[in-house]
Amino acid sequence: MPPWALRIVGVGVIALLALVSCEGDRLSKEEYISDADEICAEALEAAQEIPQPTDPGSAESYASELEEVTRGYISELRELEPPEADEEALGQLIDDIERAGLKIVEATRSNTSGGNPAEAYAEALELAEDANESAAEYGFRSCGISEGLAPH
Predict the structure, then answer these.
(1) Of 70, 65, 71, 90, which is closest to residue 80 (Cα–Cα)?
(2) Radius of gyration of the chain (CA)
(3) Among 39, 106, 109, 126, which is most exposed with the fewest C-beta within 10 angstroms?
(4) Does residue 13 register a pLDDT over 70?
(5) Higher pLDDT, 103 or 9
C-alpha cells in the first residue's frame, strides 16, 4: 500500500474515533436551542452590520459579505450535536435556513447583473417564512432567516 494511502486510512480512522467519542456529547433540546440561538443572534448582528449597497458594485460586496456570514453560521450550526430524536428535523431546518439566506445572496447578485431580482427575493421570502415557522415551532428565538437582510 502506498504511503499516501496509509495516511488517508489513518485520517479516516481518526475521524471515525472522533465521531464515536462525540456520540455521548449530544446536547439536550434546551442546550441545543440556547447554543443555536446564540450563533444565530451573532450571525444576524453581523449581517445587519454589512453596509447597505448604494450601487451595483457595493451590491456585489454586500452579497459576498452576506454569503460569508450565512455560510459561516450555517457551518457553526452543523457542528452542534442535536438531540438524536431531533437530528433529522434540525438538519432539514438548517438546510432550509441556508437555502433562504443564499437565495437572498442570489437575488442581490442578479440585481448587479441587470437581472430582475424580484422573483428571487419573493422565493427567498417564502423560504424564510417556512424556516421561521419551523424554527419557532421547535422553540428557537433567534434562528431562522430574519426579514431585513435583503438590501433596501
Answers:
(1) 90
(2) 19
(3) 126
(4) no
(5) 103
* d(C-alpha 90, C-alpha 84), whole Å: 10
Task: Inform me whether the pLDDT recorded for 111 exceeds 50.
Answer: yes
What's 17's DSSP letter? H
User: What CA–CA distance (Å, rounded) separates 90 from 78?
Assistant: 9
Under a CB-based contact definition with an 8 Å cutoff, are residues 145 and 101 in contact? Answer: yes
Residue 121 identity: Y
Identify the pLDDT of residue 87: 96
Q: Cell 435583503: give the residue.
A: 150
Residues 77-88, buried b or exposed e (16+ Cβ, 10 A)? beebebbeeeee
Q: What is the distance between the alpha carbons of residues 31 and 140, in angstroms, rounded to a whole number?
A: 11
- Separation of alpha carbons 77 and 87, rounded Å: 12
User: DSSP string spanning 60-121?
Assistant: HHHHHHHHHHHHHHHHHHHHS---GGGHHHHHHHHHHHHHHHHHHHHHHHHHHTT--THHHH
